[in-house]
Amino acid sequence: MERLIERCCGLDVHKATVSACVRVTQQPGSKVEQEVRTFATTTADLLALRDWLIEQRVTHAAMEATGVYWKPVYYVLESDFELLLVNPAHFKQVPGRKTDVADCAWLAQLLQYGLLRASFVPPAPIRELRDLTRYRKSLTEERSRAANRLHKVLQDAGIKLSSVATDTLGVSGRSMLTALAAGTTDPALLAELARGKLRKKLPELRQALAGRFGSHHRFMVSRLLADIDYLEEAGTELSKRIEELLAPFAATVERLITIPGVQRRTAEVVVAEIGADMSRFPSAAHLSSWAGMCPGNHESAGKRRSGKTRRGNRWLRTALVEAGSAAGRTKHTALGARYRRLRAHVGHQRAVLAVGRNVLEIAYHLMAEATTYRELGTDYFDRYRAERLKRRSLDQLRRLGYQVTLTQIPTAA
């Protein structure tokens, strides 16, 4: 097999150390020279690693994606070398090669022959934006957990506020919970804190707020309300910071929110996870595969079986599924029509996933072509697959006992 890279390095990264194997081919067909060294992962040692690789005139380096430990190594080396971050599952299926030295040597050998496939690592501005959007998502999920804990405490105390008020943490509900935490337990006084339409339910509120609210429940409610306040404030600060970092990509975000079902926050997540430069992905299908939004391949003995979607980017996948669900509820849109047609055959979850994939592919073309979304109409997929729709409709009528003759309607000139 032909060696494609003359001077390369394989890096086996751990928490405290990194093993580096440099492979050098002096002349075509000559013996390969190999040298292995181990460095600590402190910044000073990583700079020493970089200097050694420069001294060896290395042009390419590869490392496996080991948790978060690859990041300091990658960031120190990315400006001086062509780096490949590799999924361990793509090269670890070889028995008898499980030592740190063997790992880095095996990586270097595969790299030299061009047998490694690089993972997508976005540029620094997108990485910073990605950290913020993921952190904000984590805070949002933690707030939901805190709200659920609060609901459990209220049920434990016999307070049935959620049975009367739609939003327990709305303006009225929040006033009542604050009063409960402050020591007010009179149902009549608590019910008078209702605002707006909830005042029409004062008798139901008085009954729902009569419970056995003790000192333990008071402490728990006050603690959970403080947690929710902190999480909401932190989420607001993160959103402001995300908006600042998104300023260079404002036009891209505006294009994405023209897609049915895509809200601003979803557009922010899409930009943070894949960036705005679509040249990194050869096609929309490649992007869908990378994100884990397309079916897997499972074919054996000439039979194609149900293929589960592969594990992809879970943050992007979550946002796309939410967008697919929102698009499925829209009226007079091609995406809404596609969801309703698929739901009848494969159910809600698969239909939402399929529409989410369509959203991602549309986003790819909008960013690649710098254009906005153009609605294709509810009959787009029917027109696109007119022959299939005709056969399916005829089959349904035959099963119902009808014999049908089709006549082509001439189109107007």
The major pleated sheet works out as:
5 strands, mixed
What would the principal axes of the Cα set say about the shape? flat
Kindly provide the radius of gyration, computed on alpha-carbon positions and rounded to a whole number of angstroms. 29 Å
The amount of helix comes to 40-55%
Strand content: 5-15%
Count of distinct strands: 7
**Could you give the order of the helices and strands?**
EEEHEHEHHHHHHHHHEEHHHHH
Briefly note the structural class of the backbone: alpha/beta
Query: Would you tell me the overall average pLDDT?
Result: 89
Strand order of the largest sheet: 3-2-1-4-5
N- and C-termini, Cα separation:
63 Å
Give the low-confidence spans: none
Enumerate how many helices there are, as a single number: 16
